[in-house]
Write a structure and sequence with these properties.
It is a single chain. A hairpin with a 7-residue loop joins strand 2 (about 25-30) and strand 3 (about 35-40). The chain has helices at about 5-10, 55-70, and strands spanning about 15-20, 25-30, 35-40, 80, 100. Helix content is about 20%, strand content about 25%. Strands 1-2-3-5-4 form a five-stranded antiparallel β-sheet, covered by helices on one side. By secondary structure, the protein is of the alpha+beta class. The structure holds guanosine-5'-monophosphate (5GP) and zinc ion. Zinc ion binds near residues 6 and 45.
Length: about 110
């Protein structure tokens, strides 16, 4: 299996990390869609939201989101969290991830 986000977790690919603990890694998206665009992933390989069994990972990701939003100074101005799941959402990387978009007034939800 060659998963780009597993490769980032394993240090085989570089990433601009902003948060890491035993369960979660967060890093800047390589192609930012907003001034702040962070990806939050579980360290273990989970392809999509449909495959989550260990919901402690989801809790840990949300704790990381809260902390990173404060650290990047967008907690009060606001941010959007997005998870794409399977084809209709446009999911490209099949390792569960949440996008954090912030740093500007964001457009409509279904853009
Ligand atoms: P998806 O469409 O699957 O929800 O989003 C995948 C995201 O991963 C995209 O926003 C894309 O720019 C980002 N991405 C893909 N490959 C890499 C990479 O190697 N490094 C980083 N930092 N982001 C990546
Ligand atoms: Zn993976």
């Amino acid at each position: 299996m060659d998963c780009v986000f597993c490769n980032i977790v394993e240090g085989k690919l570089p990433a601009k990390k902003v948060f890491e603990n035993d369960r979660v890694l967060a890093f800047h998206d390589i192609q930012p869609a907003a001034p702040v665009h962070i990806l939050f992933i579980p360290k273990k390989h989970v392809p999509t939201m449909n495959d989550v069994t260990d919901f402690a990972d989801i809790t840990a990701i949300h704790q990381a989101i809260q902390q990173v939003a404060k650290e990047l100074g967008v907690a009060e101005s606001g941010y959007r969290i997005i998870n794409n799941c399977n084809a209709d959402s446009g999911q490209v990387v099949f390792h569960l991830h949440y996008h954090m978009l912030a740093g500007e007034k964001l457009g409509p939800l279904n853009a």
